[in-house]
């Protein structure tokens, strides 16, 4: 995901934070005289004296699907806490959990729930953690715009296309009226939570086609599908929105992925929640990390909408903040 996408939002929110923190002399005097002690801006403080300036570092890794939300949050957080360094890698959900288990990161982004074997390894390593929901996503199946025949697919057809069966697959194998052209496949890598989710709800545990090009970088998948009319791929909804001029989103069981169908769960079975997992000891020992997680939960809904995902109900973010407060 390109960071320039967030520059406008960063400028707007950053300016809002700055104005809320500083204000004009007149406004500051008025608040001192008439509104002392009253909170005037939800989610941010109102004066420089009230904003505790922190130092330190925060590290994370994980899902490429969640990355656009985190990258946007980090850019804006740097406006509020310029002395806190937040780094967040993109190793895929599985790769991120490996670093989390090894004690290398404070948080781990995930586009699927943590697996039982990952829970067991964290317990063995003595790492307690807390799961937080960030947003909803619709895993989006995409084709080249020149593909005018496979714009709507059923789950059964997706299984026919993506499950390895020992043959070289052609579009005409799926529907005899379609071209007798070989299908080219682009898929997230096996460390990706998106791969795991697709495996669960579409492949049903069967092997993915062996000819698929795998990559943890969703932009590689975008380029592949955009470059050939016989290509098909899948990744998070935000990456499709970033490339609507290059790709066509496939309707699944007659339902188009968009913010409304994803939020209502109508885009089934490819709607899914997105998570961040936080190390409890780091929340207690690292004030900067606690502050960043608080900032994340207060702003994740807005950022999710800004980068192309779907915000949770406000009550779910409030519940997350209460959980976080209990870990302090």
Automatic annotation (TrEMBL):
Residues 1-27 form the signal peptide. Residues 51-298 form the PBP domain. Residues 25-64 are annotated as: Disordered. It is found in: Cell membrane. It comes from the Bacteria. Residues 37-64 have a biased composition (Low complexity). GO terms for molecular function: phosphate ion binding. Gene3D superfamilies: Periplasmic binding protein-like II (3.40.190.10). GO terms for cellular component: plasma membrane. Residues 27-36 have a biased composition (Basic and acidic residues). One of its GO terms (biological process) is phosphate ion transport. SUPFAM superfamilies: Periplasmic binding protein-like II (SSF53850). Pfam families: PBP_like_2. Its main location: membrane. It is a lipid-anchor. Keywords: Cell membrane, Lipoprotein, Membrane, Palmitate, Phosphate transport, Signal, Transport. Part of the ABC transporter complex PstSACB involved in phosphate import. NCBIfam families: ptsS_2 (TIGR02136). The complex is composed of two ATP-binding proteins (PstB), two transmembrane proteins (PstC and PstA) and a solute-binding protein (PstS). Belongs to the PstS family. This is Phosphate-binding protein. It comes from Ureibacillus manganicus DSM 26584.
């Amino acid at each position: 995901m390109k960071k320039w996408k967030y520059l406008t939002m960063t400028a707007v929110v950053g300016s809002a934070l700055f104005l809320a923190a500083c204000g004009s002399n007149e406004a500051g005097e008025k608040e001192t005289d008439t509104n002392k002690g009253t909170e005037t801006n939800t989610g941010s403080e109102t004066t420089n004296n009230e904003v505790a300036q922190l130092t330190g570092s925060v590290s994370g890794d994980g899902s490429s699907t969640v990355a656009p939300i985190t990258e946007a949050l980090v850019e804006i957080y740097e406006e509020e806490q310029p002395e806190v360094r937040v780094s967040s890698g993109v190793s895929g959900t599985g790769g991120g959990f490996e670093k989390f288990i090894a004690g290398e990161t404070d948080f781990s982004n995930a586009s699927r729930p943590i697996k039982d074997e990952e829970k067991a390894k964290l317990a063995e390593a003595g790492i307690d953690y807390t799961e937080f929901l960030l947003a909803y996503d619709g895993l989006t199946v995409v084709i080249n715009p020149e593909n005018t025949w496979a714009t709507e697919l059923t789950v059964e057809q997706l299984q026919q296309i993506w499950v390895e069966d020992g043959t070289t697959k052609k579009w005409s194998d799926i529907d005899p009226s379609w071209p007798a052209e070989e299908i080219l496949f682009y898929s997230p890598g096996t460390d990706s939570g998106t791969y795991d989710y697709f495996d669960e709800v579409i492949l049903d545990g069967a092997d993915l086609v062996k000819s698929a090009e795998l990559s943890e970088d969703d932009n590689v998948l975008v380029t592949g599908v955009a470059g050939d009319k016989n290509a098909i791929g899948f990744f998070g909804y935000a990456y499709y929105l970033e490339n609507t001029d290059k790709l066509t989103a496939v309707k699944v069981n007659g339902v188009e992925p968009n913010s409304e169908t994803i939020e209502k769960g109508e885009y089934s079975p490819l709607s899914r929640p997105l998570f961040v997992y936080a190390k409890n000891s780091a929340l207690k020992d690292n004030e900067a990390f606690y502050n960043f997680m608080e900032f994340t939960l207060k702003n994740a809904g807005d950022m999710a909408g800004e980068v192309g995902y779907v915000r949770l109900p406000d009550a779910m973010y409030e519940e997350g903040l209460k959980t976080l407060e209990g870990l302090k």
